[in-house]
Write a structure and sequence with these properties.
The chain is mostly beta strands and 122 residues long. Helices cover 0% and strands 50% of the residues. Strand 4 and strand 5 form a beta hairpin. The protein is globular and about 40 Å long. It starts with a strand and ends with a strand.
Length: 122
């Protein structure tokens, strides 16, 4: 059974950092693209970052470039999203997802986690 479990969310002040984890079970990350998405109240779910399975290439939406870093540890079957210099507009539920093609479009992903809340506030 394919399962993705996010963790690491929480409340942080503006300018702070968080590291999100996405632990996979039921399949290996070696053959999957993993993406991070977020959804703020009343807004569409948007792609934040993804990492390729083939060569580890990474992709970011413009609003997080230079602040967020995605990485993967295939031995632990886990993908991370390091988030630095957080802003109030980063507040959202963050989801990880597994797919076959590097993309920041949610329709290209087949499996989703339940999400973890990130709140950036003073």
């Amino acid at each position: 059974q394919v399962q993705l479990v996010e963790s690491g969310g929480g409340l942080v002040q503006p300018g702070g950092s968080l590291r999100l984890s996405c632990a996979a079970s039921g399949f290996t990350l070696d053959y999957s693209v993993i993406g991070w998405f977020r959804q703020a109240p009343g807004q569409e779910r948007e792609g934040v970052s993804c990492i390729s399975s083939s060569d580890g290439s990474t992709y970011y939406t413009n609003s997080v470039k230079g602040r967020f870093t995605i990485s993967r540890d295939n031995a632990k079957n886990t993908v991370y999203l390091q988030m630095n210099s957080l802003k109030p507009e980063d507040t959202a539920i963050y989801y990880c997802a597994a797919g076959q093609y590097p993309s920041l479009t949610k329709l290209t992903y087949d499996y989703w986690g339940q999400g973890t809340q990130v709140t950036v506030s003073s």
